[in-house]
Design goal:
The protein is an alpha+beta fold. It is 32% helix and 26% strand.
């Protein structure tokens, strides 16, 4: 018996739906970024986060999905959140949502670089249900041999292997690391190996994604940060063929119990990128403050300009979108 031939009309309809949905996600991150930008530099990170959350919730009401938040926001900071299990969307295909309405609350409060609003979307069951604890991470961009870095290898070995794959010297590489006391040894070993470092104060989603952006100057991300942010980062890198590994870091038995309740049976497991974000994935982000990848929101008396990126793993396409929003025709002025 011959295999059934897919109906071209159905395939084209599915492709068009995917494209439209990707653009709808951008509208959601735009709304959050516009709302958060009102609080830029005012020193009030929770107010900025709350504005982004509420704007994102309202924007989701127009998206034709049956969405469930599986990666939520803000639990560690006791800030407002789109909570795990929350339903979003106006109805449609069942989708899981990973979200950080404002990645970089402190960055926004201080008016510092690289604050972004982030969403990733996949079919139901395809995101790792990561508890809000820390995760050790290592990530590189696309176009590299499989297994070029390994989370269990020392920094010097990973840097040598990456330099060899990129046909450069270790001294040509730049590693992105969160500026935390817990990373003192990692920073020392990276410098000892000969690589340069860009230290970031917050925003490790942007730090991981920078490895896949040719103009960022970042070659590798190393170190620990939030596990939910790890899933969001993995979703973005899945869209561009990047590589990432992560391992949950537990501080007490309560965290281990919570992870088990969320389906993590092996506390020592190393998660590959395909373990954290499987299947067809879409990712969207909008800049709140200027950064290496995205420009921040620019406001005027008549409106605002946003700069966003949207990625789809199915096509591997990365689109940058500059949108001009008019206060005369939209409700953004109230945000």
């Amino acid at each position: 018996m011959s295999a059934a031939v897919p109906d071209p009309a159905i395939l084209e309809s599915e492709r068009q739906t995917d494209r439209n949905l990707a653009l709808e996600l951008v509208r959601v991150t735009e709304a959050a970024a516009l709302a958060a930008s009102r609080w830029m530099g005012l020193g009030k990170k929770n107010e900025a986060d709350g504005a982004a959350v509420e704007a994102m919730r309202r924007a989701f009401d127009a998206v034709e999905i049956d969405g469930t938040v599986v990666i939520g926001e803000g639990e560690m900071d006791e800030a407002p959140m789109l909570y795990i299990g929350e339903k979003v969307g106006r109805g449609g295909p069942p989708m899981d949502i990973a979200v950080d309405p404002l990645e970089g609350t402190t960055l926004t409060a201080k008016g510092s670089a690289n604050a972004i609003c982030v969403i990733a979307l996949a079919e139901r069951g395809n995101f790792l249900h990561a508890p809000d604890i820390y995760m050790d991470k290592i990530a590189v961009g696309g176009g590299l041999p499989a297994g070029v870095v390994d989370i269990d290898d020392p920094p010097a070995k990973n840097l040598r292997n990456l330099a060899r794959a990129k046909r450069c010297d270790v001294s040509d590489l730049v590693a992105c690391i969160l500026d935390r006391e817990r990373h003192a040894e990692l920073i020392a070993k990276t410098r000892e190996a000969g690589a340069r470092i860009t230290l970031i104060s917050d925003g490790d989603v942007a730090g991981v994604i920078a490895t896949a952006h040719p103009d960022s100057g970042v070659d590798i991300y190393m170190g620990s940060g939030g596990a939910p942010e790890g899933v969001l980062s993995a979703a973005a890198l899945r869209c561009v063929g990047g590589q990432m590994q992560g391992r949950l870091l537990f501080e007490n038995d309560g965290q281990r119990e919570r992870a088990r309740a969320m389906g993590v049976s092996d506390p020592n497991r190393v998660f590959a990128i395909s373990d954290m974000a499987r299947g067809e994935v879409m990712f969207a982000a909008t800049g709140v403050t200027p950064g290496a990848m995205l420009r921040g929101v620019r406001r005027s008396g008549q409106g605002a300009v946003t700069h966003s990126v949207v990625m789809r793993s199915k096509s591997g396409t990365v689109r940058y979108i500059e949108a001009h929003h008019s206060y005369a025709t939209k409700l953004w002025a109230a945000l």
